[in-house]
Fold this sequence. Notes:
It contains seven helices and seven strands. It has 221 residues and is an alpha/beta fold. It has a five-stranded mixed β-sheet with strand order 5-4-3-6-7. It comes from Lactuca sativa. One of its GO terms (molecular function) is nucleic acid binding.
Amino acid sequence: MYRxxxxxxxxxxxxxVESGVPSVANVSSVGNDVIDGLVANVNEVNFSGYFVCxxxxxxxxxxxxxxxxxxxxxxxxxxxxxxxxxxEKCETCVKSKFTKKPFPSVKRNMSLLELIHIDICELNGIxxxxxxxxxxxxxDDSSRYLHxxxxxxxxxxxxxxxxxxxxxxxxxxxxIKILRSDRGGEYFNHEFDTFCxxxxxxxxxxxxxxxxxxxxxxxxx
Length: 221
């Protein structure tokens, strides 16, 4: 008689009870007569008698199904009956049911250049005639006016910001107060931070995986 076991991943394995007989994992290397005998012996055995484990383990094997579905399989599939009280709370299921609260709409009453949204996007891998691969956007929160500059690489973002700052401050006779960006590495260099400090610009960086905080720039994608 052969004993079949299920691992945590649900794979069948395990050696035979009788000594000198090929295991289930190596049965493909023996003749057809042995295989036929093995199948006959296996069919005579109640599989549920060899799959003794906890209901929590069956919950993981059955793709995180709920306890009621496991109870139905106990009745229809010949599984052993388990006490549902022994079911341990599944950490994966708890995390998958976490929800985010909706971001409330914000009404801003700001003046020109008080808040600037900045974001970099790739041109879908297509180069322009000048060999530019990226573009950077500067969007004023008050007027929603948009400035776009083409870049060869992301490290040119700092130079593009200096060009934008000189242009808009000269035209509007105002100064940029707040710059809001995501947490991209192109905004974390020392020169960028030093430039903002010297010009009195507050650089706000959004939290990871929260595009809503910089939604005005993200929607332009």
